[in-house]
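Researcher: I'd like a structural prediction for the single chain below. Treat it as a standalone chain; there are no partners to consider.
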Amino acid sequence: MQALQVLMNEHRTVESVLDSLCMFTQATVENGTDQRDTLARFVELLRMFDELHHMKEEDILFDRMLQNGFPRDNGPLAVMLTDHTTCREVVAALAALADRTEVWTDENRRVLNETATQYTLLLKSHIAKEDNVLYPMSERFLPPSQWTELDRCFDEFEKKWAGDGKLVDFRERVDELRQAWPAEDGPTPAGGCGF
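Model: Treating it as a single chain, here is the predicted structure.
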């Protein structure tokens, strides 16, 4: 079940990016700065994560679960799909802040803090549900032959991303933002980016 390990490794990566997003947000609020370009970099990275990770789940893992009897409209898959949609909406709100042409005001920074906190808490909660509920459930539910096929599909997906240069770009962006905004005291607390 290499596919699940790939997904969980990606979870650890994005959790560290969320910690960096919180460091950026806190510094921006505390210093009263306007760093729309940096926020735009985070937005680009979060959208790449959505394409790399959430699409792998939706188009491959969740599809196999649906084919094997999991319901789409209620239960764990419905919750995960709703979370994915909400994550995309919150990232769109962050993008709107990054796209502003006017210099950020204190109100913009307040909205940044609120939105980054919302996204961090949402995605970390979502990840916990997948790691601790959905993935173990899928391990018990899907037959072994499905896991061989899932591993193959994941390999093909990643080869396409690697061939397009997207995988290297994604990793470089992760490293760039984690180095620029390192989490000083480890992962952000359960309260998200708030003070």
